[in-house]
Design a protein that fits this description.
Layout: H1 2-56, E1 80-84, E2 97-99, E3 102-104, E4 107-109, E5 112-115, E6 121-123, E7 128-136, E8 141-147, E9 152-159, E10 161-162, E11 169-170, E12 175-178, E13 189-196, E14 199-201, E15 207-208, E16 213-214, E17 218-222, H2 226-237, E18 267-270, H3 277-283, H4 288-295, E19 308-311
Antiparallel strand pairs: 1-17, 2-5, 3-4, 5-13, 6-12, 7-8, 7-11, 8-9, 9-13, 10-12, 13-14, 15-16, 18-19
């Protein structure tokens, strides 16, 4: 009797052990989809945390706050600061710089003007977060400001349309607007600024629009050498000394080195309120016909204040 009971217990034990692997496999099989979902959730959360850190630092070393209220947020410009230029995207594929950074018409021009046409796609230069999307009738027109992880803030002005919203996260190359002629502008172009701690720096130091490239993987701002570097960058990557006027230039007005006709004597006139072709012609001792021919305009054109005209 005891033997029979022991036999039953032994058989039951073997049967139980035999079913354990199958139960374990069933449990794992049931758990697998949950694990995959949790892994996906964890991965998304981790990526979001990483991106948040990238977008907030090292810019946090320069900026004490994030504000959508002020275009230029005051901050303390360091004596030196290394700017990572990797992962960039040119904001436009157009290569023509029409106006340099620096003194212009008794005021400071805080960026570069790049010739674009209305509707051309404007793209974010680096990964970042949109801080300002606004319209300024007497200034930038429709413009966007983006803060980047490398410490820079980039400004994109005079656009016809903005394609992003404030606090939106963008990646390098994302469309952020369309080229235009809004605000204080006399011709379609992109006004492009690079600011560090709220201070405008010459974009030509870092960006080479003619070659659609940046100067290297990084650039270090130093107070002691900045002015010399800015001057050199303008000579190398600005208008090349051909044109230092303003915003209203188009391709037809750019000097054409393929023409036999020399442009060495070409000069530029900024139209003042109330001026006409006749008064400008008299002032510069030329003719209305010559002005019209040189600027590809008709005699009945309506001149706008700040418009740029060529004359010889």
């Amino acid at each position: 009797m005891i033997f029979k009971q022991l036999k039953k217990l032994t058989l039951f034990a073997f049967a139980s052990l035999a079913t354990l692997p199958m139960a374990g496999q069933d449990l794992l099989a049931n758990q697998a989809p949950i694990d995959r979902k949790m892994k996906a959730v964890d991965s998304i959360m981790m990526q979001q945390l990483i991106m948040n850190e990238i977008w907030e630092a090292p810019a946090v070393d320069l900026y004490e706050e994030w504000s959508n209220d002020y275009t230029h947020v005051p901050a303390n410009l360091p004596d030196s600061f290394r700017i990572d230029l990797r992962g960039f995207c040119m904001p436009t594929t157009n290569r023509v710089v029409t106006s340099n950074f620096g003194a212009r018409w008794r005021r400071q021009h805080k960026g570069l003007d790049i010739k674009v046409y209305i509707g051309d796609t404007i793209r974010a230069a680096f990964n970042g977060k949109v801080r300002i999307v606004r319209y300024e009738a007497r200034g930038y027109g429709k413009y966007v400001v983006i803060r980047h992880p490398n410490g820079l803030e980039t400004y994109y002005g005079h656009m016809s349309k903005q394609l992003v919203t404030e606090n939106q996260e963008v990646r390098a190359g994302d469309p952020i607007g369309l080229g235009g002629n809004t605000g204080r502008s006399t011709g379609s172009h992109l006004h492009f600024e690079t600011r560090l701690a709220g201070v405008a720096l010459n974009p030509a130091i870092m960006f080479d629009f003619k070659n659609q490239d940046v100067i290297g993987d990084e650039w270090t701002f130093r107070r002691s050498t900045y002015n010399n570097e800015s001057s050199q960058a303008t000579r190398l990557r600005g208008t090349g000394g051909v044109y230092r006027g303003g915003d209203g230039l188009n391709y037809a007005e750019l000097p054409n080195t393929n023409k036999n006709q020399s442009n060495d004597n070409v000069r530029y006139h900024k139209v003042k309120r109330g001026e006409t072709l006749s008064s400008i012609a008299r002032k510069h001792r030329t003719s209305v016909s010559a002005l019209c021919s040189l600027n590809h305009i008709g005699k009945n054109v309506t001149l706008k204040p700040n418009q740029i005209l060529k004359y010889k």
